[in-house]
Design a protein that fits this description.
This protein has 318 residues and is an alpha/beta fold. It folds into two domains: 184 residues, Alpha-Beta Complex (inorganic pyrophosphatase (n-terminal core)); 119 residues, Diaminopimelate Epimerase, Chain A, domain 1. Helices cover 37% and strands 17% of the residues. The protein has a six-stranded mixed sheet. Strands 2-1-3-4-5 form a five-stranded parallel sheet, with helices on one face.
């Protein structure tokens, strides 16, 4: 399988040439995969194409407000499967039986090139930036609804422009969708300045149990199923859990271990230049970006934490 990215222009040609689209977001979907998928769906409809989002059982109410009306009906038959923000087939949504995607649009340098054609732009902080480039290449017009979705995509994958993946190009993309009518004030309040009481209590417990290593340069947060149950936490309360451990003064690398099933943990790793997060997570079948990556480890939370901490320390650049 050839691991070569197509250009934005070639991707635009592909989108013009095909029809009856089903657009796939990844498992445990975040704002970038949903915002980018939703925006692409509306762009294709503006072009006169038939397009829907694949039903994803893990979409939370926070995002369903924006993309719920775009979900494919049960009897919809698609011709063209497009994956958005999925670095590998292991990120297919829960319950989907592995049809090969005709096209993948992604910004992860670890993309496995599983699709028939792939547009990957690792220099982009969010997949939403790539979709905006496609808007321009296709000559379609941004409206307020598309602008909202792209702002959600770009802002959530950059932590409201605080993460180190944010670039001048990211800010220019955000400015473009703001000028096109994105309701950024409402979105910022909903995504970044509003938490439930359950989330507040969970964060308190996470800080109490935080483990610090290497004189506080490495910080690891653990979230267990028991904690989720104790505080009545739902998936709608779990956006950006990976940011919690990195808030501690002196932190250069943060690890979040979240138990997603008994004996199975999702790892989120955030780092600076001291360690390549993607390379560390690749040891456990994951990947992502040099400063933000993830993987899944099949063992209890405490064991998973020690494994990933040990891997980080081994990869640390002295």
């Amino acid at each position: 399988m050839e691991k070569t990215s197509i250009s934005v222009a070639a991707c635009a040609d592909f989108l013009r040439a095909h029809d009856r689209y089903l657009i796939m977001s990844h498992c445990r979907p975040d704002g970038d995969t949903l915002g980018s998928s939703g925006a692409l769906c509306l762009i294709l409809r503006k072009m006169g194409k038939t397009a829907y989002l694949m039903p994803n059982p893990e979409i939370t109410p926070r995002f369903e407000t924006y993309v719920g009306g775009l979900i494919a009906p049960a009897d919809y038959v698609h011709d063209t499967l497009v994956a958005v923000d999925l670095a590998a087939e292991t990120m297919y949504p829960r319950g989907f039986a592995g049809e090969r995607a005709a096209l993948c649009i992604d910004h992860h340098g670890s993309n496995s090139f599983y699709a028939e054609q792939t547009l990957v732009r690792p220099e982009c902080a969010a997949c939403g930036e790539i979709i905006l480039e496609l808007v321009r290449a296709l000559g379609t017009e941004l409206d307020g609804e598309i602008a909202d979705l792209l702002y959600i995509a770009i802002s959530t994958d950059t932590g409201c422009f605080l993460y180190r993946n944010t670039t001048p190009a990211t800010h220019r993309a955000a400015a473009a969708v703001m000028e096109a009518g994105a309701d950024y004030g409402r979105i910022n309040k909903l995504m970044f300045r509003t938490i439930s009481e359950a989330r507040m209590r969970l964060e308190g417990a996470v800080y109490v149990g935080l483990k610090r290593y290497q004189n506080g340069e490495i910080n690891a947060a653990t979230i267990t199923l028991e904690m989720m149950e104790r505080f009545s936490v739902t998936e709608n309360d779990c956006d950006d859990l990976a940011a919690i451990a990195g808030r501690i003064e002196g932190s250069l690398c943060s690890i979040t271990v979240r138990e997603i099933a008994p004996g199975r943990c999702k790892i989120s790793l955030r780092s600076g230049d001291q360690v390549d997060s993607s390379a560390v997570c690749a040891r456990y079948g994951g990947g992502g970006h040099p400063m933000a990556a993830g993987c899944t480890i099949d063992c209890p939370p405490e064991e998973a934490r020690e494994k990933i901490v040990r891997a980080v320390m081994e990869a640390w650049k002295r």
